[in-house]
Each structure stands twice: as structure tokens, then as C-alpha cells.
Amino acid sequence: MQQKVAIVGAGVSGLTCGVLLAEAGHEVEILAEATGTAITSGAAAAIWFPYDAEPTEKVIPWANRTFVVLQQLSRRAESGVSMIEIRQLSRERKIEIPPWAISLGAKHLRPTSVPSNFASGYTLLVPLTDTSRYLDYLATRFRQASGQIRIPLHFDRLDEVPPEFSMMINCSGIGAKTLAQDDELEPHRGQVVLVPRMELSSALVCDDLPLIYIIPRANDCVFGGTNDLSARWEASRKQSQEIVAQCSRVLGIDAPPILSERVGLRPYRQAGVRLAEDRLGDGRRVIHNYGHGGSGFTLSWGCAEAVKLLLEGR
Ligand SMILES: Cc1cc2nc3c(=O)[nH]c(=O)nc-3n(C[C@H](O)[C@H](O)[C@H](O)COP(=O)(O)OP(=O)(O)OC[C@H]3O[C@@H](n4cnc5c(N)ncnc54)[C@H](O)[C@@H]3O)c2cc1C
Predict the structure, then answer these.
(1) Residue 7 Cα, ligand 1 centroid: separation in angstroms?
(2) Cα–Cα distance between 109 and 122 in angstroms, integer?
(3) C-alpha torsion angle, residues 257, 260, 265, 267 (rounded to 10)
(4) What are the mean pLDDT values of the chain's consecutive 10-residue runs (314 residues total)?
């Protein structure tokens, strides 16, 4: 008899694992407290870009694999994935282009293309997942492959998952701090602001503090951002105003109105993404897939494929 698999978590990690496993013929249910804009995945910008996740030697291969899958999805309009030019900016005199970006064709920006608030930058074509559509797209694909989603369900411990499931995939993001009793997880809180749609030819990103994201999407534009060690889910109006002021200064425009604010807790783990098999006290198998920090979308397909290999014992 085929084993029933429970995925705990309906963010990008849980939904991507769900799609991959259900389409491969596994009997899978996703059990989660929430999904959509209420969770970290719903707050993400979400551009393909390795950031705030460890360790590099695993992150880059997972990211490269995800790049290929997202690039393919960008040809399906319903996915909410598109390819976009990203301009990675720095306040340093000469930004260093990381090796993974060079192999994807990154080029230094000419000084005339660097906004006046920055000193250097490079340009690269990457996938952009519009989270307002992509999470729904994944959920629809999962259901079409006979997957079921049960929300809202809260667990204090993984062994509370009903016994009909002999196998679990733990994709609970920052929730793994209590669910897997993992003290190494740190909430790297991020806040972004949605403003009306803008015609911009590229996304602008700066990872030196203060962080800047300006990401044009089909129906709005994402302005960001922050990265603080904090588990506070409420949005701060003061931070939103600072974000809007900074991004408007970079673009040389008057501050646009704020449509909405989003907060997420990047599940950062100093020891690195936890993608490994474990056993619960009651003998059931669990595969952990959490701790993706600021790169959950960027690593999603690479990690889901690694989970599938573990599940199938390969
Ligand atoms: C402002 C911001 C911008 C970002 N930008 C990017 C970006 O550009 N590119 C990128 O790749 N990444 C980005 N990230 C990071 C990315 O959002 C995260 O890495 C990713 O969302 C983590 O996804 P996840 O599915 O692992 O966890 P989550 O999205 O947190 O989902 C966890 C799921 O587990 C469930 N859960 C948790 N605990 C329990 C429990 N006890 N019982 C039941 N269910 C539970 C939750 O309800 C939820 O469904 C950004 C994050 C933020 C905050």
C-alpha cells in the first residue's frame, strides 16, 4: 500500500514539494495554519536571487536548478512568473559580481545607468514570481494532481499530525522553531510596501543597508525593504514611510500612495537550510525542508527535488 504523505506548511516550500510529489503519483495532503498574504511567502518580493541563506555550496546548485524551472514557467502566463532585468546596486565604488551571476551572464552597469544614490552595479536577467498569483498557481496545480489542502490546522508538535500519515515533510518556515524545536532558526523580519503600478524597465535592488527593492509587477510595484532580527508580524507605518521615501528618492519621483503593507519572517538558519531526514518518537519518517532565509522562492524547486529523492530513498 502506498504511504500517505503530509506536508506541513502551505508556503512556497510546501506548495512546491506538493506539486512535485503529487504530479509524481504520491498521495499527498498539505496541512497548514495559513497561506497567501498571511504568511511569509505572501510578503516576498519575490525575485530569483540568492540572499540571506546558507551554505553557499548547497544554495547555489539549488538556486540554479530553480532558475531553470522558473524560466520554463515564465512561458506560461497563468503562473505569474516572468523574466525581468534586475539591476543589483551598491554604495561601494566597484561592486563585485559573484561567480554564479557571471555564469548567468551578469554584466557591470555603465556609470550612466547607475542611479545617483549608488556608486556601482551589475545587471542580470532573472525570474520574478508575482506572489499574488504564483502561490495560487501552485495550489491549483497541486489540486489538479489530486492533492488536498487542509487549512487552518495548527500543530504544537509534529507527532500531532494524524497517524494516517506515515511520512511527513516539514515545510513550516519560521514555525519550525517550535515545531522542530530548532533554536538555530532566527526570524529575519522583512517589511515591504505595495504602491501603484509603474512603468520601469528593470527591478532595482541594493542589499547593503538600508536595503532597497523596487520591483515592478503586472498590477503594482513592490517597494522595500527591511531585515531586522524580530518576530513582530505587525507592519510599522514609520518603516513604510521610510521605505517609500527612500525608493522615491532613488527613482526621483514624488512619494506614491501606499496600497498595502506586508510583513514576513525570513526563516534564517546560521547552520544552513535544513534539508534532511529524521524520525519522530513514534517511528514515523519526517523530511525537514526549512530555513531558506531570504531565498525561499530562489531555492524552491531545487530543494523540492532533493526532498523527492530522499522520500523515494534515492
Ligand atoms: C520582505 C521579504 C522579501 C523577500 N523576498 C524574497 C525574494 O525576492 N526572493 C526569495 O527567494 N525569497 C524572498 N523572501 C524569502 C521568502 O519569502 C522565504 O524564504 C519563503 O517565503 C519561506 O517559505 P516557506 O514556505 O519555507 O515558509 P512560509 O512561507 O513561512 O510558510 C510556512 C507555512 O507553514 C505553516 N506553519 C508554520 N508553523 C505551523 C504550525 N505550527 N502548524 C501548522 N502550520 C504551520 C504556515 O502557516 C505556512 O503555511 C523574502 C521574504 C521577505 C519577508
Answers:
(1) 14
(2) 5
(3) -90
(4) 91 98 98 96 95 96 98 97 97 94 97 93 98 96 98 97 97 97 97 97 93 95 97 98 97 97 97 97 96 98 98 89
As beta bridge partners, residue 205 has 88, 213
Integer angstrom CA distances of residue 49 from 65, 206, 281, 293, 302: 12, 12, 37, 12, 13
Got the DSSP string for 17-34?
A: HHHHHHHTT-EEEEE-S-
Q: What is the pLDDT at residue 314?
A: 74
Indicate whether residue 168 lines ligand 1 (CB < 6 A).
no
Contact of 58 with 297, CB cutoff 8 Å: no
Instruction: Output the CA 11–ligand 1 centroid distance in Å.
Output: 5
Q: What is the pLDDT of residue 1?
A: 60
User: Using a 6 Å cutoff on CB, does residue 300 contact ligand 1?
Assistant: no
For residues 239 and 3, give the distance between their C-alpha atoms in angstroms, rounded to a whole number: 47
The Cα–Cα gap between 183 and 166 comes to 26
Cell output for 194 = 505595495
CA distance 271 to 59: 12
**Hey, whose CA ends up nearest to atom 36 of ligand 1?**
172
Burial of 166 (0-12, 13-18, 19+ CB in 10 A): middle
Answer whether 131 contacts ligand 1 (Cβ < 6 A).
no
Give the helix/strand (H/E) hosting 136: helix 131-144
Q: How far apart are CA 123 and CA 106, in angstroms?
A: 5
Residue 103: Cβ within 10 Å count: 10
